[in-house]
Write a structure and sequence with these properties.
This protein is mainly α. Helices cover about 75% and strands about 0% of the residues.
């Protein structure tokens, strides 16, 4: 009996995809179950980990959430996320629509200046001096305003707007609609997939950002979550590296805390992604095909 070539291909294709999924998902699974494992048992365990090592413990999470700095950091990150993301979407949509419509003076020059920033940057010191001159140091706005628009995302949004038939805008203009009304009632609703991609791109960037905060903020009460986590890990590593009574136990607990911190910081983004996944491929392809 001859085997159907397509069935053979499908079998090996599915097998390959299952292997890829396993290789990709297992590290996440490992981190989660390791965070609930006994630190002593985890330190001597070798090989793959299938289930939390007994005795089951939540001590790492208790230590993480007992830290008031983490709660403040989470609140600061959410503030930057909500305000910053709203500003990102509004300004990116406005900028992309301006670059899409016909007629504005010096549009080509402005487009060139925007694209120029993708290849050349002033650097860290001029950026710091800018923030200082604007009196934004030690303010959460120093984390929001400088990254209000990303050039790459602006170009993706511009491409999405260009993919919409111009006849729709012309009809709206004939009916008396303003440019702002066209943007809000036509362009944005027809670009939901790209807007979802913008939410994901900007949201992940805001959530993971810590370097800017380490430069512009001195007040620990304003630190975002990622910077708080980094400081906690640095402090824990220093304590674990010390010698004396309980040093080994501290080193084991530090490893457990690391796993718990990874889970705490990545869980919100992982929870958000499934809701945006259906728009992701479509939104990215729009920006990739037209430009």
């Amino acid at each position: 009996m001859k085997l159907n070539g397509y069935k053979v291909f499908s079998f090996f294709n599915i097998l390959l995809m299952l292997i890829v999924v396993l290789v990709t998902a297992y590290p996440i699974y490992y981190v989660v179950i390791a965070s609930f494992s006994d630190p002593t048992s985890l330190s001597i365990h070798t090989g793959l980990l299938a289930a939390p090592l007994k005795p089951f413990t939540t001590s790492a999470y208790e230590l993480v959430f007992q830290n008031q700095q983490i709660l403040k950091g989470f609140a600061n990150t959410m503030y930057v996320m909500v305000i910053g993301l709203a500003l990102n979407l509004i300004l990116t949509a406005l900028g992309a629509y301006f670059l899409t419509i016909n007629g504005p003076m010096l549009k080509n020059v402005i487009t060139f200046m925007i694209i120029f920033t993708m290849y050349f940057s002033g650097g860290m010191i001029p950026s710091y001096l800018n923030i200082k001159d604007m009196e934004l140091l030690n303010s959460l706005w120093s984390l929001i305003l400088p990254s209000a628009i990303t050039t790459t995302n602006l170009i993706i949004m511009k491409s999405a707007f260009q993919a919409i038939p111009e006849s729709l805008s012309e009809s709206a203009r004939l009916d008396g609609a303003s440019y702002l009304q066209i943007l809000i009632k036509i362009m944005i609703p027809l670009s939901k997939a790209t807007m979802a991609v913008m939410v994901l791109y900007y949201g992940v960037s805001r959530w993971n950002s810590w370097f800017a905060a380490s430069i512009y903020l001195n007040n620990s009460d304003l630190f975002p979550l990622q910077l708080v986590m980094r400081n906690i890990l640095n402090m824990a590593n220093q304590m674990a590296g010390s010698t004396g009574t309980g040093a080994d136990e501290m080193a084991q607990l530090v490893e457990l805390i690391k796993y718990a911190l990874i889970v705490v910081t990545t869980a919100p983004i992982l929870a958000l992604y499934p809701f945006l996944q259906k728009y992701f491929v479509k939104g990215v392809m729009i920006g990739a095909v037209k430009g």
